[in-house]
Amino acid sequence: MDGRGTFTWHIPAGYAGGIRTAPPLDPKGPVVLPSAYELDDAPGFERFFLVFAAAPFDVSDVESAARSAGSGLGTAADRGVLLLPRGLGQLSLRVKKQG
After folding, report:
1. Fewer beta carbons below 10 Å: N end or C end of the chain?
2. Per-residue b/e over 2-30, b at no fewer than 16 CB within 10 Å?
């Protein structure tokens, strides 16, 4: 999520909305993403969220939570947490941009 409210999905690859199950990750080691992310000229910040669970989950639940958090582009988008369904965990990283 960036300062313009734009979302870029890294997993599942090619996700563009709708019903889709998150792919399982191998807990034995690193998982290499098929692409990298380059910071663009969006103002303010970039937020990266890792959403995880012990069981498969519907990516659209994450999409709804992210769009809700990003709708105002205020504190929730910049610093808040995603309001996810029970059983989903999250980690986030915020990159604050200068200028």
Report:
1. C
2. bbeeeeeeeeeeebeeeeeebeeeeeeee
Nearest to residue 5, comparing CAs of 72, 75, 84, 92?
A: 72
Q: What is the pLDDT of residues 85-98, one digit of tens each?
A: 999 999 999 888 88
Q: What is the DSSP string of the chain?
A: -BTT------SSTT--SSS-BPPP--TTS----SS-----S-SSEEEEEEEE-SS--BHHHHHHHHHHHHSS-SHHHHT----PPTT-EEEEEEEEPP-
Q: Are 55 and 90 a contacting pair, CB within 8 Å? A: no
The answer to whether residues 90 and 51 touch, using CB atoms and an 8 Å cutoff, is: yes
